[in-house]
Design goal:
Elements (H helix, E strand, L loop, with lengths): L2 H11 L3 H11 L4 H8 L3 H15 L4 H10 L5
Helix pairs in contact: 2-4, 2-5, 3-4, 4-5
C-alpha cells in the first residue's frame, strides 16, 4: 500500500461520525452557531469538536481542515 494512502486512512480513522458532520457543515460555510443549531449541540461543543478535528488532521485553520478532509475523502 502506498504511504500516502496509509496516512490518509490513519487520519480518517481518527475522525468520528459527528466530527465528519461538523467538517461537512464547515465546508458548506456554516458558522459555529449555525452548526450547533443544525446538529442540536451547544456552540461550546462545536468549538471543542473543531479543535479536535484540527488536532487530528494537523490542520492550522478551517480552510486547512476542509482541504485535508477533501483530500482524504472525508467530505465531498
Amino acid at each position: 500500500m502506498a504511504a500516502g494512502a496509509r496516512a490518509a486512512r490513519q487520519l480518517s480513522a481518527g475522525i468520528t461520525r459527528r466530527e465528519q458532520e461538523v467538517l461537512q457543515n464547515l465546508a458548506q460555510g456554516l458558522t459555529r452557531d449555525e452548526i450547533g443549531l443544525q446538529m442540536h449541540i451547544s456552540v461550546n461543543t462545536v468549538k471543542s469538536m473543531i479543535k479536535s478535528i484540527y488536532n487530528k488532521l494537523n490542520a492550522a485553520n478551517r480552510a486547512d481542515a476542509i482541504h485535508i478532509a477533501g483530500m482524504i475523502g472525508l467530505i465531498a
